[in-house]
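Review form for a predicted model. The reviewer records the input and the model, then writes brief findings.
Reviewer: anonymous (R2)
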Amino acid sequence: MKYWWVNQKKTHKQEIPGGFLWSPKIKANGARNQFWDNMTLMEVGDVVFSYYFGEIKAVGVVTEPAQTAMKPDFGKVGDSWSSEGWYVKVEFKPLDNPIKPKEHAAVLLPLMPDKYAPLRENGDGREFYLTELPEPFAKELEKLIGNEVDLKVAQLTGEIDLLSELTNDAAVEEALIGRTDIGPTTKSQLVKSRRGQGIFKSNVRLNEKGCRITGITNIKHLIASHIKPWSESSDVEKLNGCNGLLLAPHVDHLFNNGMIGFSDNGDLIISSKLDKNVLRAWRIDEVLNVGNFKEEQKEFLKYHREKFGLKN
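Model under review:
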């Protein structure tokens, strides 16, 4: 297991709730960047300390190694970055009691690496994105944070173990590449589609915190469901977080088949084709409001209603 320090001053609003790290692969002039190359060295189970605004504010655990992926939606922050880069899945938990490394410079500075140290000599953080931490430095950080970090890492590790049982993107991709019944073009398209789904789910998580019908918030039990069907979406819409909802599998089934939908104000709309016994068996109330949607989400929800003939 390795330890990493990530500077998320510009990207914490997307990466922490979205459960990922992303960086370009090369600079605009074609030069490589060691702090971006470090993304390829991360392994499942590695611990990540999230630093921004002068504090360690969250701890994360790597759930899947680096893969090539399109840039997530960072808004204006990422306008100058290339559209393709490294994407690493990392589940984060915010700390209840963040620490300011500068206040502990006396004990941390002697433990820093000779090269690519995360802190300056005055205790301020450096601007680079991702660097590996020596174990003594990481252990001192854990000591300063207290028992909270051990608890959160243990929780995250337990979730990762279950996630590994449910899905392993690397294994699936290897199986796809090894298939002999499809050509190289189809293989490439399938692999890109799976990677795109990972980015899409991260983007959806920026808007949606859980299944609006069941209340489930544990991401391993939720599907990122396209509102406007994937097959009918443009390349941009396929990755747009506003074109998605986090849904429990049975709710995803109903939504994708047009058995249910939502009004702009969040009222559940039920298709006349749906057997109401299904709702009762799954304990879904026929009269239900799931809360407000963003304006861009409403445009996609309107498309979904019109496609399946759902009436408010």
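Findings: The radius of gyration is 22 Å.
Further findings: The domain at 3-167 is CATH 3.10.590.10 (ph1033 like fold).
Recommendation: see findings above.
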